[in-house]
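Lab notebook, design round three. We kept the backbone fixed and only want residue identities now. Task for the bench partner: fill in a sequence for the structure below.
Input structure tokens:
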């Protein structure tokens, strides 16, 4: 079989494989004698390209890169639509906002979405004539604001409150109103929730989090349902120069192979830890979409295949949280989530989210859950 035919037949097979297989094989080179599975990163600014540029597969490093193409092919296999890489999650979010919105358009977004997304909407897009309106995620409140909207931005579960909206319901309502829909899928990941299959036009992701999972890469991507939109976003990337480094992209692709096993373990442990926290006397409240008692559970169960590694819980006050961090041996105090190391932060320390002084955003890693339970028992006893 030729390499091309072999690639096509594995491409067809990819559609029938389960997620655990897809993440291992997606985007690898076709099988060919003496070649690696995943070649190393290509570091190139110009490529040899004489004569007509159309005769050269690669010409210049801002336009294209084979390392990007392989990871983008892998993401397409997971997301169900062509994917475009960016150097961070925020660069990916900005690309959707900048390509869809024009002065006079209306953007509807969650009032408690990731705070930098709110900041770029208000500080840049509103400042350039976009009408930005916000409503809470819970109870699908954005539905009331869709009349005349150009873009509905969703984030589910939200960071840091872990509220969930009904993505399919809101996509249907937005499309009826003539609006496009983008979903920030960072907390759920491309394995835990499929926004494009639920009707969204764009799935936006910070690959910095669980997608890469090793706390060593900042990266993002946009997946589009429509090929023409993916091309528009790719052209924006080329012209704006918002391009990722090949090394980071290669590291992301290598990390993808373990995504399913990482997430399965992280989510199973998160369920155990959330259940423990929910019955602990020192914990005032817990947010985790996997808890049957959580307000978001019924909707989350409809649209998520994994409930994610992120939990929210509330202690009495700031001093209690500081005591918890000072005592814990395993929880890194840090401002990211989704990685192999359990980490957490007192979210109110940034002053950007409407959460209590004792609210902790916790991300469960790959440690043995028995050690995590012991560590939490000691740290909570010290509170
Ligand atoms: C939900 C969400 N979206 C987007 C981002 C931005 O991602 P990045 O830091 O990769 O730019 C973050 C970062 O924390 C996030 O939590």
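Proposed sequence:
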């Amino acid at each position: 079989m030729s390499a091309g035919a072999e690639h096509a037949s594995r491409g067809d097979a990819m559609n029938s494989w389960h997620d655990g297989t897809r993440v291992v094989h997606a985007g690898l080179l076709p099988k060919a004698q003496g070649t690696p599975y995943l070649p190393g990163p290509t570091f190139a600014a110009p490529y040899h390209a004489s004569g007509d540029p159309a005769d050269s597969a690669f010409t210049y490093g801002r336009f294209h890169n084979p390392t990007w193409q392989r990871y983008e092919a892998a993401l397409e296999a997971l997301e169900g639509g062509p994917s475009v890489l960016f150097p961070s999650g925020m660069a990916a979010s900005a690309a959707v906002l900048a390509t869809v919105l024009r002065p006079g358009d209306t953007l509807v977004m969650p009032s408690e979405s990731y705070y930098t997304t709110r900041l770029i909407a208000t500080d840049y897009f509103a400042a350039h004539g976009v009408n930005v309106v916000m409503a809470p995620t819970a109870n699908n409140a954005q539905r009331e604001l869709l009349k005349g909207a150009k873009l509905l931005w969703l984030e589910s579960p939200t960071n840091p409150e872990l509220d969930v909206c009904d993505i399919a319901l809101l996509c249907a309502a937005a499309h009826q109103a003539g609006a496009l829909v983008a979903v920030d899928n960072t907390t759920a990941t491309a394995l835990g929730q499929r926004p494009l299959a639920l009707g969204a036009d764009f799935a936006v992701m910070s690959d910095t989090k669980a997608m890469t999972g090793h706390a060593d890469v900042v990266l993002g991507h946009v997946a589009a349902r429509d090929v023409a939109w993916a091309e528009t976003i790719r052209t924006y990337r080329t012209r704006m120069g918002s391009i990722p480094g090949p090394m980071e992209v290669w590291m992301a692709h290598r990390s993808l192979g373990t995504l399913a096993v990482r997430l399965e373990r992280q989510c199973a442990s998160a369920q155990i830890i959330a259940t423990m926290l929910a019955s602990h006397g020192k914990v005032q409240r817990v947010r985790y979409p996997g808890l049957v008692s959580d307000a978001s559970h019924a909707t989350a169960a409809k649209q998520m295949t994994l409930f994610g590694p992120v939990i929210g819980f509330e202690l009495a006050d700031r001093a209690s949280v500081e005591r918890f961090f000072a005592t814990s041996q395993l929880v890194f105090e840090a401002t990211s989530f989704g990685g192999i190391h359990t980490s957490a932060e007192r979210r109110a320390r940034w002053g950007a989210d409407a959460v209590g002084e004792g609210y902790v955003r916790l991300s469960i890693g790959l440690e043995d859950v028995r050690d995590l339970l012991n560590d939490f028992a000691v740290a909570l006893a010290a509170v």
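Keep this in mind before ordering anything: The mean pLDDT is 96.
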